[in-house]
């Protein structure tokens, strides 16, 4: 097993996407010398600090508020005394906590044309303007609804699955914590996104399988099989991203983020996203295959590696078609508004199929599905090989133990 894990890391190193964006500057007659390491580090630190401050200045800060009243007033900036809606809010957090402020419902202060009612909780974006603040209604405060949805989710898991459901909820919580405290900080620190994503995908699988089924060889094989499928998805996406000239900047949010963080590589983060997104579906197939082969071996101890592999392939094929559809449907659902917009305005098919966002979703869905397909033979082979050897070793031990 250790040799296989080392092999995965070696393969990843061959496909490694640079952690930072590549930039070169050349002149016709001169070649600039490379600055000393200390100077380069100082420049990178200054760039990072400037980018962080720029983002902070542009985004401002977000605080909670409650709508106290809604009234109609004349807009002094409009010719003719046009009326506008004014929301009086009480801040529930931040530097203005406890204070009453008025926010008009014009395009600049309420860009999403929200119509909150008295008693609603909203999110206010605050931008410093001299000694005062510019205030904007950003959206509704939906935390209470989200918290109760999470509570309902965990409750249903526990009620229907008992202790197993609680362990599943715990594994999900730990995986989310790892994404927030390990994955994202590692990316922002400039670590190569692809190896980090593949390794953490394996850790996520090992964690969830270990908590729900036990910390044993089955969990380890499932984890390695998931990493194998994710690695195939990455290799496919890397090849076709180069072929299709995909930059990884498919949305305005992507462009804004990478404009503020020019040292990060958008393609590397795109590949990492493909790996993480496909890992969950791939894990389901890997778990089913390993469990199926384990049961076959338990009921038929004399089954050969070939027979175990065939059994695993049968189990994998049964799950593969349904999960492939699931993965494709998930990506289609996420881009449904784009599809509707194309259909409504009767745009050019040539233009539509070459949209960055469309190509990005096609790459994600099909590369993830191909990774899912390859997970079946990879996991079936690993499970058949190691479980057969494990049973053989137990048989040899039992035989020698009874020999006098």
Brief summary of the model shown:
65% of the residues lie in helices and 11% in strands. The protein is an alpha+beta fold. The two termini are 33 Å apart.
What do these coordinates show?
This protein is of the alpha+beta class and 404 residues long. The protein folds into two domains: 59-141, Beta Barrel (OB fold (Dihydrolipoamide Acetyltransferase, E2P)), CATH 2.40.50; 190-399, Multidrug efflux transporter AcrB transmembrane fold, CATH 1.20.1640. Helix content is 65%, strand content 11%. The protein contains twelve helices and five strands. The chain has helices at residues 2-14, 37-59, 143-161, 163-188, 193-213, 217-243, 252-260, 266-299, 305-334, 336-345, 349-353, 356-401, and strands at 61-74, 83-91, 100-104, 121-129, 132-140. Strands 3-2-1-4-5 form a five-stranded antiparallel β-sheet. A hairpin with a 2-residue loop joins strand 4 (121-129) and strand 5 (132-140). Helix 1 packs parallel to helix 6, helix 6 (217-243) packs antiparallel against helix 12 and helix 8 runs antiparallel to helix 9. The two termini are 33 Å apart. The model is unreliable at 8-15, 22-57 and 396-400 (pLDDT under 50).
Poorly predicted regions are 8-15, 22-57, 396-400
Terminus-to-terminus distance = 33 Å
The CATH architecture assignment of the largest domain turns out to be Up-down Bundle
Shape: elongated
Number of H/I helices? 12
Give structural attributes.
single chain, Multidrug efflux transporter AcrB transmembrane fold, 2 domains, OB fold (Dihydrolipoamide Acetyltransferase, E2P), alpha+beta, 404 residues, five-stranded antiparallel sheet, 11% strand, 65% helix
């Amino acid at each position: 097993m250790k040799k296989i894990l080392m092999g995965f890391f070696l393969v990843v190193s061959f496909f490694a996407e640079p952690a930072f964006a590549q930039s070169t500057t050349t002149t016709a007659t001169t070649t600039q010398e490379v600055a000393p390491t200390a100077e380069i580090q100082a420049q990178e630190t200054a760039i990072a600090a400037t980018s962080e401050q720029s983002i902070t200045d542009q985004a401002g800060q977000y605080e909670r508020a409650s709508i106290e009243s809604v009234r109609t007033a004349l807009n002094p900036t409009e010719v003719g005394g046009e009326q506008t809606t004014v929301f009086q809010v009480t801040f529930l957090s931040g530097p203005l906590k406890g204070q009453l402020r008025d926010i008009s419902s014009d395009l600049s202060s309420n860009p999403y044309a929200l119509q909150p009612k008295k008693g609603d909780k909203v999110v206010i974006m605050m931008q410093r303007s001299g000694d005062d603040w510019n205030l904007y209604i950003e959206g509704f405060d939906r935390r209470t609804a989200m918290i109760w949805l999470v509570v309902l989710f965990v409750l249903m898991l526990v009620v229907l699955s008992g202790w197993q459901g609680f362990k599943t909820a715990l594994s999900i919580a730990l995986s989310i914590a790892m994404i927030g405290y390990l994955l994202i900080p590692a990316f922002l620190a400039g670590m190569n996104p692809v190896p980090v994503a593949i390794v953490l995908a394996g850790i996520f699988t090992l964690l969830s399988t270990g908590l729900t089924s036990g910390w044993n060889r089955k969990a380890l094989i499932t984890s390695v099989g998931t990493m194998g499928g994710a690695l195939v998805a990455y290799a496919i996406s890397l090849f076709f991203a180069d072929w299709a000239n995909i930059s990884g900047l498919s949305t305005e949010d992507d462009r804004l983020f990478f404009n503020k963080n020019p040292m990060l590589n958008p393609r590397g983060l795109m590949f990492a996203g493909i790996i993480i997104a496909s890992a969950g579906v791939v894990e389901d197939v890997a778990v089913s295959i390993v469990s199926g082969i384990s049961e076959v071996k338990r009921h038929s101890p004399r089954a050969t590696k070939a027979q175990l592999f065939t059994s695993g392939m049968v189990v994998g094929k049964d799950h593969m078609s349904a999960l492939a559809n699931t993965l494709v449907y998930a990506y289609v659902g996420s881009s449904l508004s784009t599809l509707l917009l194309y259909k409504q305005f009767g745009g050019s098919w040539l233009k539509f199929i070459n949209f960055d966002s469309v190509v990005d979703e096609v790459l994600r869905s099909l590369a993830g599905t191909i990774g899912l397909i390859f997970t079946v033979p990879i996991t079936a082979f690993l499970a058949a090989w190691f479980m057969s050897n494990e049973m053989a070793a137990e048989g040899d031990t039992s035989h020698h133990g009874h020999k006098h």
